[in-house]
Amino acid sequence: MSAQHEEDDFAPTSTPGYKPGAAKSVDEYANLDAEDESLARWKASLGIVPGVTGTGNGPKVTILSLELASSTLPPGKHLIMNLLNPAEIAGLKKNPITIKEGIEFNVRINFKVNHSIISGVRYMQVVKRAGVKVDKMEQMLGSYGPHPKGEAYTKNFDPEESPSGMLARSGTYNVRSRVVDDDGEVYADWEWTFKIGKEW
């Protein structure tokens, strides 16, 4: 498969007529319409408050972890990918995660906004089996500024159901995940594998 075809898999969907506005600093956004109390509360909920600028160096966003969450997981078991650990990321490609068949689960991503306002940032993943694309997911993270206390944000995606049956249980699924913004800036790009089993 060509590299261009693989990049086409990650072409984000676009909304006709939508054009991102000019970039502004956190303080500029915080001071816009400062007399509107309702708008000020909404901006504060996004971390847009005067004087909170974060660190101006490096990427605007750091992706900390990706988690597969399900109420069917055995007590004490967690499926968390630490994306700050290069050795763990390398292991994710070689050692498939086992997902129980026919259960409901959701993807949860933890990230930190280092500086600036982010909007149009989305999580995308393409799932392939034997080289054939079987699923594509694209989820918007939303709009955020640096957290006033420097903390990470968590975004829970809509629940999904894992495949089931003998055919689903045979073989390994290869996943490529990416976090990208409207300008095409890639904040994280990694590969991992999973298989479907009768049990976790």
List the helices and strands and how they pair.
Layout: H1 3-9, H2 26-31, H3 37-45, E1 61-69, E2 79-82, H4 86-94, E3 97-100, E4 104-113, E5 118-129, E6 132-144, E7 153-156, E8 160-161, H5 166-169, E9 173-180, E10 186-197
Parallel strand pairs: 3-10
Antiparallel strand pairs: 1-2, 1-4, 4-7, 4-8, 5-6, 5-9, 9-10
Low-pLDDT windows of residues:
none
Based on secondary structure, the structural category is alpha+beta
Tally of alpha and pi helices: 5
What is the helix fraction of residues, given as a range?
10-25%
Average pLDDT figure: 85
Distance between the first and last residues' Cα: 32 Å
Major sheet: 5 strands, antiparallel
Number of beta-strand segments: 10
- The succession of helices and strands, N to C, reads HHHEEHEEEEEEHEE
Query: How much strand content do the residues show?
Result: 35-45%
Shape: elongated
Estimated radius of gyration: 19 Å
Tell me what you see in this structure.
- This protein has 5 helices and 10 strands, in the order H-H-H-E-E-H-E-E-E-E-E-E-H-E-E.
- It has 200 residues and is α+β, with helices and mostly antiparallel strands.
- Strands 1, 2, 4, 7 and 8 form a 5-stranded antiparallel β-sheet that branches.
- The longest helix is centred in the first third of the chain and has 9 residues.
